[in-house]
Amino acid sequence: MVQSSTAQVSRRDAQHNRARILEVASQAFGADGIDVSMDAIAKLAGVGPGTLYRHFPNKDSLLAALLTLHYERLDRRRLEIEAQACDAGRTLELWIEALGDWMQAYDGLPEPLKAACQVDSPLTPACRDVIDTTEILLKVAQDKGFARRTMTGRDIFLGALAIAWAGGAKAAAENTPDVLRGVLRDGWREPKAGGSVPR
Length: 199
What we know:
Layout: H1 2-32, H2 38-45, H3 49-55, H4 59-84, H5 88-103, H6 110-116, H7 124-143, H8 153-168, H9 176-188
């Protein structure tokens, strides 16, 4: 009985520590980008480095846990888009915009996302989930004649990722993301679908 109570307290402490780390990391990454060190996050969370690394062995695993929370919001946004969009082309367009916001949740995030597309990392499953969702929305747009058959969900994902990276580059102008989103839209949209592409 005593051992059971002790184990329950230990589990509660571990859950509290994990939630605290995620909260602090989200705030730190939101304020200063993902270059904030793991040791700094441990200090801000009021836990030892050992506790932090037991929950999150590296920064990518910490980012993956945070992106799971962001993905839940992204999926809710998808449902909103599907409910409000007038056609499959507009649905895909709004999804790509939401995708860009997800990729820019933290300054510097596009870099580890790009790496996760090349080699397996804790971020790879999140990227695959988003690519799969993009593929579904793209397929509907293709079937309705709004999107080119030559495009894939992975192409759209990588295009959006490139825009997210470029938007955070020091050389980027304020309107760089909008300009590049227009270029991407011109690339995936089927020219015959509704005539001119809206700007």
